[in-house]
Design brief:
Blueprint (H helix, E strand, L loop, with lengths): L9 H14 L12 E5 L2 H11 L3 E4 L17 H7 L2 E4 L6 H10 L5 E4 H5 L26 H18 L4 H26 L8 E4 L5 H7 L2 E5 L10 H14 L3 E5 L5 H10 L2 E6 L15 H15 L5 H5 L14
Parallel strand pairs: 1-2, 1-3, 3-4, 5-6, 7-8
Helix pairs in contact: 2-6, 2-7, 6-7, 7-11, 9-10
The structure holds zinc ion (ZN).
């Protein structure tokens, strides 16, 4: 049921992101002799790459946490990092085209750009929807919120690192096996905990449309996302229609995101009496860089627990998971 059309507030955040992009601190480039230098884009991908690479590689993210990755333009200083990197991992699926273009224009001879999303999903399985309409040609890029694709990303990272640094093969293979195990545990615990919700309650109405692939793979129903592709504010008429839909569909909760705080969702929540939960995140890790919870797996556990509990379920499996996370040493611009 695609009742909720995309509306738009992104313009504000688009500008915000650009201005933040302009103020982003230049990150130090690690020239440690002999170490592979790997550039990455959004923080969940930086986390996955860093877990596979271990301490053998210098890993540097590009998109600051808390910034809208969909409109992010890299500052000129990023060209220096991209000119030195041996490997550049991007999500692809047209998420970071400005960064990809800058990489292509600046990368050194022998360097390689790897589009993790494009390596993980056939074009025929791309999802176009309200926030990412086919007419714009940009598919929903959020594969990493789905453990199945996160594992595929990790496998592609492992393979690319082995090609770039064959001597590290056994380390990359071991780190990949560890990641696969943790991501599988997250996936299995999610499947177990979501049974505490009746099928009809596994329903998502979000501000930011980051769970399309997750929903398809785990049997959830995305009834809508409020953030439009045209970056305009929802009109009062559209908000009124959303309020009617929330009432008609009897949703238990509506979900905002930390990166895109939304007055509109808050307003809909107030108007309908439906719980408004604003703590989902698609690419802003928990805690601070270097802390144990600053990782892909902690982020996704937090998101799944938030969704299931807000909709009336319980999460004993996810909450008791020992994720065996230790802080990583990648650089995450803030
Ligand atoms: Zn996103």
């Amino acid at each position: 049921m695609r009742l909720v059309k995309t509306l738009g507030i992104c313009a504000i955040f688009g500008l915000f992101a650009v201005s933040l992009g302009g103020c982003t601190k230049t990150v130090a480039i690690d020239d440690s002799a002999g170490k592979l230098l790997v550039a990455t884009t959004v923080s969940p991908i930086t986390s996955i790459v860093s877990q596979i690479a271990g301490d053998r590689v210098s890993v540097q993210g590009i998109v600051p946490e808390g910034v809208n990755s969909h409109t992010f333009e890299p500052p000129p200083s990023t060209a220096k990092l991209l000119s030195k990197a041996d490997l550049i991992f991007v999500n692809g699926l047209k998420l970071e085209d400005p960064t990809k273009d800058m990489a292509a224009a600046n990368m050194k001879s022998g360097a390689r750009i790897v589009e993790l999303g494009n390596q993980s999903i056939a074009k025929s399985d791309w999802i176009f929807d309200f926030s990412f309409p086919a007419k714009d040609g940009k598919p929903n890029p959020h594969l990493w919120t789905d453990p199945i694709y996160a594992i595929k990303y990790a496998k592609t990272v492992r393979n690319a690192l082995i090609v770039a640094d064959p001597e590290g093969k056994s380390l990359y293979e071991k780190n990949y096996a560890d990641f696969e195990q943790v991501a599988t545990l997250v996936s299995d615990s999610l499947k177990s905990d979501q049974k505490s919700l009746p099928l009809a309650s596994r329903t998502l109405l979000t501000y930011h449309d980051a769970y399309a692939y997750f929903s398809r793979d785990y049997g959830w129903n995305v009834i809508g996302a409020i953030q439009p592709s045209n970056f305009e504010d929802p009109t009062p008429k559209e908000i009124a229609r959303l309020i009617d839909q929330v009432r008609a569909l009897k949703v238990e909760a509506i979900f905002g995101s930390e990166v895109f705080p939304s007055k509109v969702l808050e307003e809909i929540g107030n108007e309908t009496g439906v719980r408004y939960v604003d703590t989902l995140r698609d690419d802003d890790l928990l805690g601070e860089p270097g802390q144990p919870e600053h990782s892909w797996q902690a982020l996704m556990r937090s998101n799944y627990v938030t969704m299931i509990e807000a909709l009336g379920g319980s999460c004993p499996a996810l909450k008791s998971l020992n994720l065996e996370i230790k802080g990583d040493s990648a650089i995450y611009p803030q």
